Every structure is written in C-alpha cells, then in structure tokens.
Automatic annotation (TrEMBL):
It comes from Candidatus Accumulibacter adjunctus. It comes from the Bacteria. This is Phage protein D.
Amino acid sequence: MAPRGDVRRGELNLDLHGQLARARVVADLAQQVTSVSTAGWDPVGGSAVSGEASSLAHGGPGSGSSGADWLGRALAPRHEHIANLALASAAEAQAVAEAAFDQRARRFVRLEGVAEGNALLRVGTTVSVSGLSGRWDNSYYVVEARHLYDVRAGYRTEFVGECAWLGDG
C-alpha cells in the first residue's frame, strides 16, 4: 500500500471516439465534505488528542475545483467527525483525518470507460481523457480494470477512474 501520488504504473492518453469508445462520467456531491475531524485519547500522556483536515493532502491526478469547493458553493459546508477509532497521538489523529478527507475527495468524479484493449491500462495507471467536454476532460486514477475478449467485440478494456477535481469550463 502506498499513497496514490507514489504509485506510478504509467500514463495513457485516451481520446473519445479514438482509443476511448465509450465513457460515462459522474460528479457526486453526496459523499463530499468540507472538513473531517477526529478525536481520541493519549493513554500515556493522559490527554485528549484531535485532528482536522479541510484540504486535500493527496488528491491524485487532475485539476479543477474539488468536491469540497463545489459543495461549499452549491449547498453549504458539511462536516464529518470520526470518533470510533482508537487514536493515541495528535499526529495519528491528524493523519486519520487527512486520509478520511482525501478518500472522500478522490471519489468526487468517477469515469466508467470502455477502451480499445490495452494491457497498460490497469489499476494504478493515470489516464488523461479528452474529447468529452471542458468539465470532464481531466486525468483520472484507474481503480478498476477488466480486460475482455469475445468474437463479436474483440479485445477491449473496461475501466473505472477516479478524480478529486471537476474542470471549471
């Protein structure tokens, strides 16, 4: 396991109606938050510990506005508090808050695509998609990939990519 920024399994450019045959992209605010806080107890020091995150520490590829930004503009701030974990230090509480915030944020925009068969299109690959629109043309981190072959359609790769950013244009 490693942060997404440390995973370098290659980069591919996919153009709609070129190598990318079909794409469905959804930006979902339902799981987005503007901040995450955590709390715990340091048994050695005998004191409460806490952490808070309100910006991306490890957002992954892409550019634009984050889900937290869109949420704040479109609706209202939404806070999440995590209190069911055993956190023994302030550094641990901060790391858990950042990880929880990042995990939600990276799932803001989801791309489900079908591309020409390509063995390099696999989990951990960054795909730069173009030909959709200014909002959706972006870089996505591949989190699922299936390589399929049949007599009718030939070799194709179905994949799911995630991005923490939605283009502004």
